[in-house]
Structures are given as structure tokens and as C-alpha cells.
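Continuing the batch. This is chain 6 of the set; chains 1 through 5 are on the previous pages. Same settings as before, nothing changed between runs. Recording input and output for traceability.
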Amino acid sequence: MPAGLTPARTHVDGYEQRPLEQGWQAAWAEPDRRPSPKAIDDLDWLPARVPGTAAGLLRDAGREAGALDSQDWWFRTTFEAAPAATDEEVVLHLDGIATVAEIWLNGQLLLQGDSMFARHALDVGALLRGANELAIRCRALAPLLGTQRRPRARWRTRLVPDNNLRWFRTMLLGRIPGFSPGPVAVGPWRPVRLERRRRVAVLRATLRPRLDGDEGILSVRLRLRNLGGAPTGRATLELDGPSGRHRAAIGIVEAAGGTAGGLIAEGRLRVPAVRRWWPHTHGEPALHDVRILLGEDERPTTIDLGRVGFRTLTPGPTPDHDIDRDGLSIHVNGVPVFARGALWMPLDIVGLTPSRAELRAAIETVRAAGMNMLRLSGFGPYEQDAFHELCDELGVMVWQDLMFASMDYPFTDDDFRWVAEAEARDVVERLAGRPSTAVLCGSSEIEQQVAMLGLDMALARIPFFDHWLPGTAREAGLDAIYVPSSPFGGELPIRPDRGVTNYYGVGGYRGPLSDARTSGLRFAGESLAFANVPDEETLATIFPGSPDEAFIHHPRWKAGVARDPGAGWDFDEVRDHYLALLFRVDPAALRRDDATRYLELSRAVTGEVMAQVYGEWRRAGSPCGGALILWLRDLVAGAGWGVVDDRGRPKTAYHHLRRILAPSAIWLVDEGIGGVIAHIANDGPAALRARVRVALYSDLERPVGHGEEWLEVFAHGAAQRDVEVLIGHFVDAAWAYRFGPPAQDAIVASLERDGADGVELISQAFHFPAGRPRAVESEQRLGLAARACAEPNGSIRLTVATRRLAYGVRIHAAGFAPSDDAFSVEPGGSRTIELRPLMAGRAFAGGALTALNLDGRVAIATAERPA
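Output for chain 6:
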């Protein structure tokens, strides 16, 4: 009884939307022993949340998840609903059930589904009887993997233990021993709701915003079914937003097939001098509301089609830019955009049910870091519409993978291909018209797997990805750059100077930092995976009451550290490699003799490495068009790949990235005998007039050189200045000639402008030609101090000052999040930081500073706010 999905973003005046969220219970049963709702009353029922998962309800009940794939799971609820009236239809929407499932209503089997990613819409108007019972059976996946004989894969992945998983449309997260061993997703993980459609049913909606010069053109096509109450003679297309309100009349005709085929409403609207949508780093993400009004009487039916943005998007300087050969270089509105960000992971890997507020907070954390792209990788689930709406609103580009990763999927099987095509068609139709959708990628690591196994690359040439998917995306009106797989490009899709690659030259492969340049990277679909050490509060959740056990050999620590399948090492060892390289210490000895110092240096080193690598990639002369970090947020508490911990709190590495990725930034690159170069970026839409100031210090305190220059950096522009040219004479700034001991051990470059309250620091960078500071100093010698003052909005203004250079200053203030952390302070200088309360009304109870070159802590003094 398919009824047709209501298109994403579409809200029709007069529809009644009823989430079925209350009264759910769930219970497990042995596989196939309880095949219908008649046989389940005596099971051990637990309260359940829907949307939600079996793992989530077990977590709520304080129970271990166990082997969920080895059990059948039943979910059931009761609800009141009358049968459909003559001029309406009642549709049961099931937006996602993991994975092989049966849906029963009032004892009748409605549907058998076999994809976690499929959305279902069932006409149940004739089956409702007042008091109703809805039951969902999620079948055990393990027996289905092991008992059904299927054709053998042409090649096998080491990522998951059972290659038969390739036949089932379910996410791999939760099933990958190396970095996501569980729990698996089982249950109605997306909303279940009842929809009463009245007057008219919207079966399909296609929105195609585009630009013609400065004019915006919006084309709309709707497929409708009149339920008997909607005036459908004429319609009006309305657009409302920062470009004003605009209207155009559109026509309605019968679809092919006469009355049975429904109606087609189609039209076009032009908007002169339209405001364009930009990634937040480069401008305003302007959005416009779209509505269609059916009928011309006083009571038209309003169809809200959400919001659209107008922008152009090309994979390089021209639309026919060859990604295969020249790499990906995203141009928005004709401007090259250095894409930086991370792979997005589910905010709650157990329950998979984040709220809109939680999604907003997470994406705002991305935006605050200067990131402008998130990748939804092929290992996880598709995100809810709210995620994409927020990315549209906040100006964060989205790289969307189809959920095919690292396996030889059986596209030659007709049934599998039909399911895959239905999934892909739903995805591209949901994303069409969204300005944030920048890249559509067919799969993750399929071409890479074939290449690295030494097989014929023809095995990676799959018509579904090479032809069917890009054609279907174009037909749906999805304006996104298409990449068949990531990595992709060149004769072997693993070379960094071609196409799109996964870059771990610096990182997992332990290459020198210079590899970031010598590799000639064009675009990294994922990169820079490190075991990023979380803060003390997160460590306390891993080792509650036992801080002395917080050593990286402990099993509870290792549970949060990723490793490659089959590898004899993990990413703790990768971090230790760079710890020895940058700080010239023996990590094993330091961990043994001074665990606290080891953890602090470990927190710092991954951020410093990533910042230095991004500085190479972002400079004007680099061939790199962008790079995404593996990944944004940890799945569990620990030293995972995330630069944000599992509860959404930034790690030290995040703050290093925030400074190098800021839209307006300055950073220093050591060119050896070519000197030290200050690079300045101005991604924003207005010219930046600012002062570049460089200062050289000896013994981390004594000034030995100074230079400055006012400059104007054009909108979306960049500049660079040689430090020695700014100073006015040669000083061997990089200490490359080595004629003697270094004349300076610290170089500070500042980007400043005049503000209402004096000099405003836009960005600041530090470089240590002879190596990072290693000695720790007393509070008295360093001269580090901090003073806090309460602001009317509840935040705290913290002023940090120092006499000698303070390196790697961290702020410890319980209940408050700093606007910057793990920063350095110039000798004789100061920094002003905002501390924002994590909960409204939180009182500031003091805190302390630490620094990598400070012995101990410095208490934060408090001061009354000046009148």
C-alpha cells in the first residue's frame, strides 16, 4: 500500500502531522522464534524511545548491548486514530528502520524492508480502527549473513569480518573492529509518524535555483494528486528573502496518463540582483523561502517548499575542469574556496537520535573553527533533513557520500541494484536545491581498495557509480560536483598529486612535515588522522575515581584509540612519533617518568602538526584545493580521531586548527634558506586593511628585531611578506645558514587593525627557528598572570598577560568554554579571551592557567567590572 513519500522540506497547509513517539516498548527474541505479533506478549519488554535503537534502550536501562545482530528485536506501541475520511488519506511514515524489518499494523503485515536507509510511506487509512497497535520486527542479521549462499566477491575487504555484509544496506559503523566495533544499529532509528493529507497530496517537488549573471532564476516542478478539496486551476510561486518578495503565476496541467497520473504544477521565477549564497568563510549564506499558493480565492492551499540559495558551483576555474587529472578545486560564485573541515560522525553512535538543537550546536562548533565543509562518509548513516537545513543556514558546505564503502557490492544482482537505485534516488531528491550540497560522491575507498590490492582497475569501474548515479543526480536537479569514489583520479587513485586522495603522508605513514608540500596534494577527501588526547574532564569519565590509571596502555584508554585492521600499531604510536620529532623527547620515558607532562605535550603536538600542514596547503602557491580531517567528533570517550570529544567539547587540537583555518588569518612558513614567510588570507567578501607586524625575540623575551607594514588584502584574496624584508635587513630568520647560534629563538607575526578600544588583534602566529621551547619556568620568571571580569551577558572577559613568551597557554575554568585555548602570548603582550558559561546562570568560581613552559599553575584573579 505505498502512498508516496512527502518530498523533503515540503509542508502542506492543512496536513496533520502526528509523531508516534509515545508508549513504545521493545524486547528481544531468538531469531525467527517469534514470527508475528501474536507470539510476543510474554517477552521481557523494556521502555523504548522512538526514534531510537535497541542499543539506546539498553543504555537507558543500564544494560550491556551485547551481540544485537544475533537477536530478533520487536518494537511496539498503541495509538488512537480513526480511519481516513472520504476527502483525505492517512499515511504511515517510517523514515528508517535498521535493517531487515517487518511492519505490522493491527496484526496485518504491511511491509518487509531490507534497508536501513529506505524511507517508507504506507496508506493505512482503511486499516485504522480507533485503537491501533503498531509492531516492528527487526530480524537478526547474523543468521542471514551466515546461512544464505551468494556469489563470491571479486575481492575481499579486511575492514569488516564478514564480507556478506555487502549484500545488506546498513551502515558499517558499529561493525568495524578497528575504529567502530559496536554497538550496531538495530531498530526504528528515524521517526515514525502518521500524516493526514487533506485537499492535495504532493508526490514530488523539484526546485532548481540557478544564476544568470546577477539574476536568480528559480524553476519549480510539482507532481500533485487532488484529494478533492484544493483549488487547482492556477497557482502562484512566491519567493521571499533578502532579495525581497517576488511572485510569478505558474500553470497546472494533467500529468501524462490523464486524471490517474495526477497534476503537474510547473513554473519559473526571476529575481533581479539576487543575493547569493556563500560558504560562511567567504560571505553570507543568503537563503530565500519558497512557497506555492494553489488557487486564487481567499483560501488558497499553501505548499511550503523550504528555502533555497542561489550560487554557482564548479570543480575548478571552469565547469569542465578535469578532477581526474587536475584535482578538485571548488569555486563558488567564481571564487576559489579552500575547502577545510572534517568527516562528520553521528553525534550519538548508540541512539542515533540527536535533536535539532544538538545538531545546531555541533555545526556552530564547526563554523567557529573556520571550517567550511563537512563530509558524510560512506561508513555511516545519512543525516536527517535538519542537518542539511542547518548547513544551508550556517554556510557549511556538505560532501555527501552514498553509503557504499570498501566492499565489492553486488550491483549485478537485480534485487540489490533496485534497492540501491531507490536509495540513491531518494538521497539526490532530498538534496536537490540545497546550496550547501557541494560534492556528491558515489562511494568511499572502493577504487582505493582495488588499487592497493594490486588488482585490475577495471574491477573498480562500476556503471552504477560511473553513469547511472551522476545522470540521476542531474535529472533530480542536484547542483553538486560529482566524484565517483574517494580516492579518485589518475592511473592509480592513491597518488596525492592527482584527483582526490586520502592523505596520511603526515600522520599514519609517519612522513616528515615537508611531505605536506613535496607530495603535491590536490585535494584530501580525508587526512591527518591522529589520536587526539582529550582534556582532563573526559579522561575522568574513562577512569572515574582513578586518575593515576590514565596511561595509554590501559584497556579502557585503548578502547577509544583507532587502529587500522590487521596493523601491528595504533594511532597512539603515530602521535608519539611526532611528539619525539617536534619536542625532542623520548615519549616512552616521558610517559613513565612524568605522565602529566606527557599528556600535555601529547595534546599540543597533534594540533601543532595539523596547523603546520594546513599552513602549507592553504598558502597561495599551493596546488591544494582543500583537505578534510578524519574526523570531527569522537564516537566514544578517549584519544580518538576527533578534534572534538564525544560530548562535543573541543580538544586542544581544535584550537590550533581554529587559528590556521580562520577566514582572516596570518601564519608563518619556514622556507629554509628562502627565509620565513608570513602568509595572510582574507577569505571574506570585503577588503581587509590591516597592519602586519613581526617581532623577533632572543631568550624568549629580549626584542632583537621589528618590522611592520600596512597593507590591503582584496576580498577573497591573499598576500605574503618576507619577514626579513619587513624588518629591513637579513637576520637569518629561519636559522638556515647556521653561521652561529640563532640570533632569535621566537618570531611573532601579528595581523592587527585599529579598533574602538585600541589595537585589535585579528590573528597571530609564532615560529621557533631553533625548536619549540622545552624548559619549564617558574611563575615568577615567566611573569604569566590572568585577570577575569564578569560581563553583563554572563560571560567572563579574561585578560592574560606575560613578561616572557608564554607557550601553549591553557585555561582551566570549570563550567566555562574559552573562545581560544592552547595559545601563546608574545613577550610583554596580552590576550583577551571570552569565557562562555556552558549552562545559563553559571557563576564563575575561579580557575587557573597552565603553559607548556610553565612549572605548575597560575591562579586566575578576579576583578570587578569597571563602571
